[in-house]
Every structure is written in structure tokens, then in C-alpha cells.
Fold formin-like protein 2.
Amino acid sequence: MFLKLLEAVLKTGNRMNVGTNRGDAHAFKFDTLLKLVDIKGTDEVEFRKLGLQVVSGLGGELMNVKKAAAMDSNVLSSEVAKLASGITKITEVLKLNEEIALKESSWRFSESMNGFMKKAEEEIVMLQA
């Protein structure tokens, strides 16, 4: 939703600057957003209604942005590293369980945990990236 809003701002700016060297921009500076308040035009009411529909949904989309902005990236990296370490330990436990597994319940446990581990490893790789 936020990306759509930024794209709309870029398209609006390009439309307003058609015929100038700024009419085909591929990006804009964030301080440009502050200038939106000063924009006036003949079709302002129509575009304001359309814009309000987009902006009204942003509250839900951006609910956790303030919390995320307050996070320390070093702490986050440390927590992800701890998760990766935990996954390694669980993998070791699963290997030991499979070596001694004689009962069907142990087999079911291993099967269930291997499914969990696959998903968890994918998530951690994504977080690390």
C-alpha cells in the first residue's frame, strides 16, 4: 500500500511537470512529500477523493512501522543469530532421535519436526538476508 502511495506521488509529479526536464522522473526525495500540501489544481477535488481512498488504508498497513523504526539492528541481528543457533541444536537432536528411533511415536515426532525445521530454516535465511 505504501509503495502504491509513493508511486502515485511520482506519477502525479510527472504529470504536473510534463514538458519540463522533471516530467519523466524515476524517483523523488522524501522531502518532496512535504510539498504536496501546497499543490493546487483544477481537478484537485477529484484527485483528493481518489487519494483519500488510498491513504485511508495506510493506517493498518503502517501500524508496526513506529515499532520497527525503534528497533536496534544489532539487537535484531543478534536475535536472528540465536534463532539460527537454536535450529542447529534442534537438527542435532533430530539426528540423535533418528539414530535411536525404534518406536512409531519417535518416527512421527521426527517427521513433524523435520517439516517445522524446513519452514524455520527458510524463514531464518530470509531474515538473515
Q: What stands out?
A: The chain is about 70% helix and 0% strand. The chain has a mean pLDDT of 80. The radius of gyration is 25 Å.
